[in-house]
Amino acid sequence: MFSFHFIKNLVESISTNSNQKEKYSKDDIAWAIETASNYVIGAKLCLVKSFAAQILLAKNNYKSNIHFGVTVDSKKELEAHAWVECNEKIIVGKTNDFLRYTPLIKS
Predict the structure, then answer these.
(1) Please, what sign has the CA dihedral across residues 33, 66, 80, 101?
(2) How many Å from the N-terminal Cα to the C-terminal Cα in the chain?
């Protein structure tokens, strides 16, 4: 288990802008992450997709934020969710009821 600080620093170091000539759209990046998550073990998790989105968005010169939120479900169990916003639009982690999550951290 790694700390949030460690993962955040790792994502930031990977996200440094490359000399990439082709710039992918935010929609292309979201599509690629959703599609790849169907084929990679563990990639269906919202946290994994959020980190991947932040890295790919940064590589394509988009500024984004990962949001972490929690709620208590009907069984009184803690439930967490992560999503990525870019220019106030959710790129990865869309859910019909994300407003039920209380934001904890915005990275």
Answers:
(1) negative
(2) 19
